[in-house]
Amino acid sequence: MAHEIHLKNNKYRQWVKAGLGLGYLKEGLAPFCDDIGRQQYNYIINQIQQTKTPQPNVPCGVCQITTLQPDHVRVSKGICPLKQDKCNCCFPNNKTPCPNNVCGAIYDSIIQNHASIPPAPYWKNSDVQQWSTDPWSISKCFINAPGYKDKPSAVDTDCTGLLHVIINNTYFHSHIGCNITGPNNLFSKVRQYRNEIFHSSNMELEESKANCYIDDMIAVLQDNKGKACTSTRMAQQAVRKLQECKGLKISLREIKDENVKSSKNQQKNSATKDEYDDLKKKLLQLES
């Protein structure tokens, strides 16, 4: 049958291998992102409680992003002192301060921690009413792509979203060994690999390129200097899986078995545009 001939193609099997590698990378990154996101949340809330007068009330749960007045004020008409385009401070009409004296300060902190120039938080991925109680709601503002609003944790977020959080959030940078702000940094390269793998029109990949992709995924988890990312148990397990995956000679049965196993796991996680989900759909299309 035609699909069996396709599955015997080594370049296709290498493409599958690279896709599985992204799934393992996500497994390793999720606990790290969850841990550092919680640390950042605690830092922000502690800073607000120590510096704000009157004393803020946490939780809030009533503010909306469209009507929230930031703590900072515009320099002049249309000019934000934090250099954010279309900041709420530039359009003060119909904006109201947080009644609990907390959400405006979190708004400022998110902008100040955004790594892009100008800073560009993606507010649509988050719910302001959860900022004061849910660390991941703050982290999701650093995912500069749609589709993550309903993802309640790092574990429920796909590889691309986790890489966005790390790359775009300067708080994470102090927990990363490599220079994440430099051109062609490792984390940005791996994020691009995801696009190259899943946007492949013929679903084929040279073995040397697939192995190069996996080597860089391992380097992301090991992070050169062995900092917080690689110290997690899940990251260490993911590295072992990636090393095994690199040397794997994938057969037709292995592809199907791994696809079934991965699909069951992803039904539990329900990640946005999940790598395993994409892989499952493409395999089913081939088999039909």
Structurally, how many domains make up the residues? 1
DSSP summary, beta strand count = 0
Q: Approximately what portion of the residues adopt beta-strand conformation?
A: under 5%
Name the quaternary structure.
single chain
Radius of gyration: 21 Å
Main structural class: mainly alpha
Large-scale geometry: elongated
Average pLDDT number: 85
> What is the helix content?
40-55%
Taking the alpha carbons of the first and last residues, their distance comes to: 10 Å
Largest sheet: none
Order of helices and strands: HHHHHHHHHHHH
**Count of runs of 4 or more consecutive helical residues:** 12
Return residue spans where pLDDT drops below 50 for at least 5 consecutive residues.
Answer: 266-273
How do you describe this structure in short?
The chain is mainly α.
Features:
single chain, 288 residues, mainly alpha, 54% helix
Structure, explained:
Mean pLDDT is about 85; it is low at about 265-275. The longest helix is centred in the first third of the chain and has 42 residues, at about 10-50. The chain has one domain (about 10-285). The relative contact order is 0.17. It has about 290 residues and is mainly alpha-helical. It has 12 helices and no strands. It is elongated and about 65 Å long.
